[in-house]
């Protein structure tokens, strides 16, 4: 079986035939890969910049890939929710089996840290021709979404973060006097796929969205911003005076210097979502900023990963957007490459990329 593999914590990636025996259990499903998305985590592993990655027990290599769309080839005799020919996306994180959150399907809130994640740590991923998985961890995809459903996994993480935000902000009345969010301003720092999904959801909810990056938009980014009615801000050339005060800042960059200076724009009772992760950068946090966070009742919230219900929520959004923003979703997939080209696009990001996917 052809697969994209790495030697964790060592730089490099290769396409290789691997022999992995995966007999089909009674509650298991054999899935043929159609598309596998590439994200910053994959590139971090390939370039040895992510230190927490490791292979499954008994292996000296790891198969990459956690953003997957596949089609069911075969089902075990006790499988009840899927059949041959169904399209599916797999859940990435699998629980520790010990803490209560993992036992009830909320492994995204694992309390022990002893979870595994497909293609990242302790479990082979989906950059391979086929794989076997438990029915429990597969989410059925409506046939009409098959061309864009590879976007489900990254979107599921955004769905979870927004659900967390709205839950926490129930500490007060956060809607406007007309019961909507149309008076609320959201800054989305970063314009990659995660930033785009935050912009899509927040626009759908009624927020006024400002997409912020340290450069001018690419033609595709400019199109998406205009299509959403959002404003794209180049923070290097445009002054902060152009920005209103913020009810929400979402950082998808992981770069402190990109979002900390914006925090002086935060309103009382506002929120900051930290989503991006980058190692090594340093930026000063002053006592004046801490005082402002305290005095303004500002929420600072980190969010990562997603549960199966968030995957289902992501598919619901894709269904809504299919009729409203299909042009945006199609433009987000900026290139589809065959598997033999995978190392090239995994080592370095193609120019103008929002989302590159491997086509099997």
UniProtKB/TrEMBL annotation:
<feature type="binding site">
    <location>
        <position position="41"/>
    </location>
    <ligand>
        <name>substrate</name>
    </ligand>
</feature>
<feature type="domain" description="Alcohol dehydrogenase-like N-terminal">
    <location>
        <begin position="26"/>
        <end position="143"/>
    </location>
</feature>
<keyword id="KW-0521">NADP</keyword>
<feature type="binding site">
    <location>
        <position position="349"/>
    </location>
    <ligand>
        <name>NADP(+)</name>
    </ligand>
</feature>
<keyword id="KW-0560">Oxidoreductase</keyword>
<keyword id="KW-0520">NAD</keyword>
<dbReference type="InterPro" id="IPR031640">
    <property type="entry name" value="Glu_dehyd_C"/>
</dbReference>
<keyword id="KW-0547">Nucleotide-binding</keyword>
<dbReference type="InterPro" id="IPR050129">
    <property type="entry name" value="Zn_alcohol_dh"/>
</dbReference>
<keyword id="KW-0479">Metal-binding</keyword>
<feature type="domain" description="Glucose dehydrogenase C-terminal">
    <location>
        <begin position="147"/>
        <end position="359"/>
    </location>
</feature>
<feature type="binding site">
    <location>
        <position position="153"/>
    </location>
    <ligand>
        <name>substrate</name>
    </ligand>
</feature>
<dbReference type="InterPro" id="IPR026583">
    <property type="entry name" value="Glc_1-DH_arc"/>
</dbReference>
<feature type="binding site">
    <location>
        <position position="117"/>
    </location>
    <ligand>
        <name>substrate</name>
    </ligand>
</feature>
<dbReference type="Pfam" id="PF16912">
    <property type="entry name" value="Glu_dehyd_C"/>
</dbReference>
<dbReference type="GO" id="GO:0019595">
    <property type="term" value="P:non-phosphorylated glucose catabolic process"/>
</dbReference>
<feature type="binding site">
    <location>
        <begin position="191"/>
        <end position="194"/>
    </location>
    <ligand>
        <name>NADP(+)</name>
    </ligand>
</feature>
<dbReference type="InterPro" id="IPR013154">
    <property type="entry name" value="ADH-like_N"/>
</dbReference>
<feature type="binding site">
    <location>
        <begin position="275"/>
        <end position="277"/>
    </location>
    <ligand>
        <name>NADP(+)</name>
    </ligand>
</feature>
<dbReference type="InterPro" id="IPR036291">
    <property type="entry name" value="NAD(P)-bd_dom_sf"/>
</dbReference>
<dbReference type="InterPro" id="IPR011032">
    <property type="entry name" value="GroES-like_sf"/>
</dbReference>
<comment type="similarity">
    <text>Belongs to the zinc-containing alcohol dehydrogenase family. Glucose 1-dehydrogenase subfamily.</text>
</comment>
<keyword id="KW-0862">Zinc</keyword>
<feature type="binding site">
    <location>
        <begin position="213"/>
        <end position="215"/>
    </location>
    <ligand>
        <name>NADP(+)</name>
    </ligand>
</feature>
<protein>
    <recommendedName>
        <fullName>Glucose 1-dehydrogenase</fullName>
        <ecNumber>1.1.1.47</ecNumber>
    </recommendedName>
</protein>
<dbReference type="GO" id="GO:0070401">
    <property type="term" value="F:NADP+ binding"/>
</dbReference>
<dbReference type="GO" id="GO:0005536">
    <property type="term" value="F:D-glucose binding"/>
</dbReference>
<feature type="binding site">
    <location>
        <position position="157"/>
    </location>
    <ligand>
        <name>substrate</name>
    </ligand>
</feature>
<dbReference type="GO" id="GO:0051262">
    <property type="term" value="P:protein tetramerization"/>
</dbReference>
<feature type="binding site">
    <location>
        <position position="305"/>
    </location>
    <ligand>
        <name>substrate</name>
    </ligand>
</feature>
<keyword id="KW-0119">Carbohydrate metabolism</keyword>
<dbReference type="GO" id="GO:0070403">
    <property type="term" value="F:NAD+ binding"/>
</dbReference>
<dbReference type="Pfam" id="PF08240">
    <property type="entry name" value="ADH_N"/>
</dbReference>
<comment type="function">
    <text>Catalyzes the NAD(P)(+)-dependent oxidation of D-glucose to D-gluconate via gluconolactone. Can utilize both NAD(+) and NADP(+) as electron acceptor. Is involved in the degradation of glucose through a non-phosphorylative variant of the Entner-Doudoroff pathway.</text>
</comment>
<dbReference type="GO" id="GO:0047936">
    <property type="term" value="F:glucose 1-dehydrogenase [NAD(P)+] activity"/>
</dbReference>
<dbReference type="GO" id="GO:0008270">
    <property type="term" value="F:zinc ion binding"/>
</dbReference>
<feature type="binding site">
    <location>
        <begin position="303"/>
        <end position="305"/>
    </location>
    <ligand>
        <name>NADP(+)</name>
    </ligand>
</feature>
């Amino acid at each position: 079986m052809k697969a994209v593999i790495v030697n964790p914590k060592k730089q490099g990636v290769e396409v290789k035939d691997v022999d992995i025996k995966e007999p089909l259990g009674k509650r298991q499903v054999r899935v043929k890969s159609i598309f596998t998305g590439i994200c910053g985590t994959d590139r971090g592993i390939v370039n040895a910049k992510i230190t927490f990655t490791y292979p499954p027990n008994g292996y000296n290599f790891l198969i990459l890939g956690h953003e997957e769309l596949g089609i069911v080839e075969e089902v075990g005799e006790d499988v009840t929710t899927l059949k041959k020919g169904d399209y599916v996306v797999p859940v990435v994180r699998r629980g520790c089996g010990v803490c209560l959150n993992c036992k009830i399907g909320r492994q995204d809130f694992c309390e022990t840290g002893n979870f595994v994640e497909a293609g990242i740590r302790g479990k082979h991923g989906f950059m391979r021709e086929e794989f076997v998985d438990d029915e429990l961890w597969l989410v059925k995809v409506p046939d009409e979404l098959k061309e864009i459903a590879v976007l489900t996994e990254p979107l599921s993480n955004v769905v979870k973060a927004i659900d967390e935000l709205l839950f926490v902000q129930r500490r007060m009345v956060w809607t406007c006097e007309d019961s909507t969010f149309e008076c609320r301003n959201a800054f989305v720092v970063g314009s990659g796929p995660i930033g785009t999904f935050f912009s899509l959801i927040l626009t759908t909810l009624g927020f006024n969205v400002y997409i912020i990056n340290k450069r001018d938009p690419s033609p595709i980014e400019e199109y998406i911003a205009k299509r959403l009615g959002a404003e794209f801000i180049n923070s290097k050339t445009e002054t902060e005076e152009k920005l209103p005060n913020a009810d929400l800042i979402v950082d998808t960059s992981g770069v402190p210097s990109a979002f900390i200076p914006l925090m002086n724009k935060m309103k009382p009772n506002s929120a900051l979502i930290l989503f991006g992760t980058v190692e090594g950068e340093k930026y000063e946090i002053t006592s004046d900023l801490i005082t402002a966070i305290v005095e303004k009742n500002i929420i600072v919230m980190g969010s990562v990963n997603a549960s199966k219900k968030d995957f289902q929520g992501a598919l619901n959004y894709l269904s809504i957007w299919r009729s409203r923003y299909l042009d945006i979703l199609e433009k987000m997939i900026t290139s589809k490459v065959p598997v033999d080209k995978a190392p090239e696009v995994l080592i370095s990001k193609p120019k103008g990329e929002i989302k590159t996917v491997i086509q099997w």
